[in-house]
Amino acid sequence: MNGRGWRATLKGLLLGVLIGVPTGHAQAVKPVVVLTVSDVISPASADYVVRGLDKAADEQAQLVVLGIDTPGGLDTSMRSIIKAILASPVPVASYVAPSGARAASAGTYILYASHIAAMAPGTNLGAATPVRVGMPGQPDPGNPPAAPRSDKNPEPETDTLSQKQINDAAAYIRGLAQLRGRNVEWAEQAVREAVSLPAQEALKLKVVDYVADDLGGLLRQLDGKFLIAAGQAVQLHTLGAAVIHHDPDWRTQLLSVITHPSVALILMMIGIYGLFFEFVNPGTAVPGVLGGICLLLGLYALQLLPVNYAGVALILLGIAFMVAEAFLPTFGVIGFGGIVSFVVGAVILMDTDVPGYGIPLPLIVSLAVISALLLATLASMAMRARQRQQVAGDAGLVGSVTAITAVQAGNPYNGWVLLQGEHWQVLSATPLQTGQWVRVVARKGLLLEVTTAEAASRGG
After folding, report:
1. Are 431 and 349 members of one domain?
2. How far apart are alpha carbons 345 and 356 in whole angstroms?
3. Each residue of 161-213: pLDDT tens digit?
4. Which residues touch 118 (CB under 8 Å, ≥6 apart)?
5. What is the pTM of this model?
6. Is residue 139 part of a domain?
7. Which residues have C-beta within 8 Å of that of residue 225, sequence separation ≥ 6?
């Protein structure tokens, strides 16, 4: 081989090294990690994705495929996921699958933020208009409701708060589209007009990058592609790469359960009533332990959710009123006010109109009725206990029949008895004998006056 041939061979070897082509030694192919979000975007979803991306980086994965099938979700959780994707050193391919799935609302933003956006045939994305914060169907205080469309008013007016939210969301998704080189105009249209697209049209409009029938088809299309992740150039070698599925673990499932608004409300109710019963009957332990755990879990869930703190205050005030009704002779006035306060607080508790995050009215009514019945039972027990004859204190001592345990030496009119677990000194008008049965007729300080009792009256 002449000198020119050696130079050509050396140049080929160097070029192969630079572009990552194997030159005789097989290179280790890094794995592909698969995460799945198939529900509402929630605090549990955000925790799962963020931890999954960190774990993928620790495992030195070359790609994370985020399977998406969601109707949308909370803005705070969505933004947490997007921040993690943008900062991830491992590229993320969001894949709307299987057929029939969707990436609506928050899912559209996540798709736009990903390094790769892909869809399966028969899926759709869009409808990314932010849901207005506040009570469902109610106008914002100080802002009139939207005016109807007419000749004099060709465009319906929107309230200031909603307009701010829409503008903010449009700017956010527009920035993501520019970052990833995707269709900016349609992204803004999805926010302002809530439009949607099926997979094939999304591919034609450059809203997504790929349409693939399944995960294997997507990985075949991605093989050899260059991406920029966290400022670093990355080339994918997905053909034949090991696929690792990280399904939601017990922590994600537990967080998903307790952060459901209805479950959080029930946990808080169980916690408050558990502590209440522990305070009423100290030493029972079980209600106190169970109540403390449930209350902490409920409060933890509420701090992760978009709650209206006025609603929380009304719920606590209502419970306090219902508890007070069991001890105060108000003839139901405080208790009724507590029920009204609880119901109103539960209705306005969730400060969002996102589907799946409202508390069903039947559950609110059921909890209110259960609380009312529980407190009515307590009040009834308290009334019966008040009418029952006292068996402690002076009322319990006077009339008691007991036996003389000892007689004072040199003074047969004084002796000792055992009553209510205590030794009492007694005084009688007649001489006493040890073992003699006597009846208490009066108490003077620490001295009991007694008289002899016949054997027939020992049970009195």
Report:
1. no
2. 18
3. 778 889 999 999 999 999 999 999 999 999 999 999 999 999 999 999 999 99
4. 93, 94, 95, 96, 208, 209, 210, 211, 212, 218
5. 0.69
6. no
7. 116, 235, 236
